[in-house]
Amino acid sequence: MSVLEVTGLCGGYGAIQVLFGVDLAVAAGETVALCGPNGVGKSTLVRMVAGLSRPSAGRVALRGEDITAVPGPRRVRLGLSTVIGQQAFGTLSVRDNLRMHAYPNGRDDEPREAAVDGALAVFPRLAARAEQPASTLSGGERQMLVLAKTLIQRPAALVIDEFSLGLAPVVVGGLLELVRRLGAVGVATLLIEQSVNVAMSVADRLLFMEHGTIIATHTPAELRDSPDLARRLVLGGHAA
Ligand SMILES: Nc1ncnc2c1ncn2[C@@H]1O[C@H](COP(=O)(O)OP(=O)(O)OP(=O)(O)O)[C@@H](O)[C@H]1O
Q1: Ligand 1 center–CA 177 separation, angstroms
Q2: Number of domains in the chain
């Protein structure tokens, strides 16, 4: 059974429709990358999966349960974490940022400090900056903080909106390694990623989006075997 399932999702901004029936599913331990050119609706989809905006039609399900009408914060408690941008609480220290997420929620009976220390142990750079205000972190360190929060939430499904943007390859490599590790412990991950090369390095499957729908699904091996296909999909139908 899929951990995260999106069916027939439609919606947009007021009169502007952006999504036209998106279907996708991510299984336990699977990493699925969603690729596509600028403006096709990837972030809009993430916002609807996260519960930040409501679809006009369609369904979002987590572990078989319809969560389409469930508010965003409650989705986190149900096991769906979303990484959007480099959110951090500026004046709070790195450690206090993590403490805010170390609540007991039924699936998590670890004491708070142990969960915080466990997440810091995964990111030595963050551990070295634990008492520093989050506002002083670099872009890559903020992404580490966001992922460290996710480790504390221990999600069943994780949706990440473009974390490679503007980061040095070595930082992206470290973050991708963590995504692989989350996959290895069964987390279903949907990764929004403009770079097909980055997506191919971490995903089990790549979905390609155009004009608000998924137009193709391929494994990295299929794309490696067919460079023409990959080029066509990367260019979003604009290839000659
Ligand atoms: N708040 C908004 N109000 C009106 N239109 C919006 C709003 N946010 C996004 N859009 C429009 O919706 C469409 C899809 O945007 P979205 O951010 O989902 O695309 P994307 O695939 O994530 O693009 P990118 O890769 O550039 O981030 C775009 O045409 C965009 O201009």
Answers
A1: 29
A2: 1
